[in-house]
Amino acid sequence: MSINTTNTFRPRRWLTGLAASAVLVAASAPAFAIEPFTADYQATYMGMQANGRMTLSSAGANRWRYSLDISNSLASLSQKTVFEEHGGKWRPISSSDSSKVLVKKSDKQAEYDWAEGVARWSGDVKEERSAPIKLQPGDMDALMINLALVRDVEAGKPLKYRMVDDGRIKQMSYKVAGTEQISVSGQKKQATKLVNTDGDKQTIAWVVDGMPVPARILQRKDGKDTIDLKVTSVD
C-alpha cells in the first residue's frame, strides 16, 4: 500500500499502495469479492527493520475498514480508511494518517462527503492543501490503491486511478512489467510486477494470484530504496 515523515519513517500514502498509492477512473468494477483479512509484513526502511500489518474488516452496511500499521522502536505509522461499495465502485468515506518519529508527530484526518461532493482535510495539513476538493465518481484515497491493484490485475482492467489524498489530486498509472518469482513465507510464488513512476519516485508492487494485497511493495527515490514491505503471512 502512501512513507514520508519529513523524509523520515513514513511512506507516501498509497499506497502507493505503497502503499503506493492507492484509484479508479472510468473502468466499471469487475466481479471481485471483498473478504476480511490480516496480512503481516516485514518492513525495511533505510536499513531499519520494522513490523507491518494490513487489515481489512467489515464496518457494516457495505462499508469496510482498511488499515496499515508499521512500527519499530524509533518510529510508528498508522493509516486507516473506511470505504464503501456504491454503484459497483469503491469510494472512501473517511481516513486518518498519523506518524511518530522520535519526538516528531503528525496527525491528519480526511472526510469524503459524497452527498456534497467534496473531500476535506484537518489536522497537520499544509495550508495550501487545506481547501476542499471536488470529488468525482471512482475517486480513491492512496491506501485503497493496494486493494484496487489486486482487483484490477485479476480482472485485466487498466491500472489507472485518480487519487484524492492529503489535500491534492494525483493521476496514478501502473504498468505491468512482466512476471517474477518471489519468495512468500519461504515459498516460491509467481507474481505480476507493477510499476508506477512519478518523477524521481517509483513504486513497485508484486501481485500474487489469490492474495488480497500485494505480496511486496517497494518504494524508491532517486534510484534508492526507501521502503520495502514483504508479506510474511496472510489470514
UniProtKB/TrEMBL annotation:
Record keywords, A-Z: Signal
Annotated signal sequence is 1-33
Q: What is this protein called?
A: DUF3108 domain-containing protein
